[in-house]
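G., the chain you wanted modeled:
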Amino acid sequence: MNTRQPDPGAGGAAEKVRGWFTGRLPADWFAAVPDIQVDREEITIMGTLADPAPAGDSDAERAAAAEGRIRRFREETRNRRIEIAREAEHKFGRKVSWGVTCANVTEMFTTLSVPVMTRLRQSERRVLDTLVDAGVARSRSDALAWCVRLTGENADSWLSRLREALRHVEEVRDQGPGRA
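Predicted structure as tokens:
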């Protein structure tokens, strides 16, 4: 029996996840609407905390104040975040990860690392092996993750446009025959 829930990224389900969290999260946790990302395995809630009162003129003092605010938030909300995550995991069949940004400091509290199987040709494997041999990565797996991160950082605007196009495809698909 398949107990896996439908992909929340398909056909408006991601909006249901976002709506559920919008209604479920305490209004005073974040200074702005949290960014909620959904994929096949994970729901990531990324909130923005209010900047702490000026702690001084130096960047180090401001960063330390932000880190203190993040630590306090993490400790004070831990039990409630766990409760909300368990409820969401049961409802949506996905793990929930949390993170926050305060001033210029971003910290992820939890993240999911998911194995991904892939087939690579020799020329592609050589790229990974070169990264391992050069000490950039510890293993082919680390090298591939490094490549994906680097691509994501350097192709961010292109990936954003692609994700927007996919959202439009989902909207059109939802309006198709037999959809209510």
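The first strand starts at residue 35 and ends at 38.

Shout if anything looks off.
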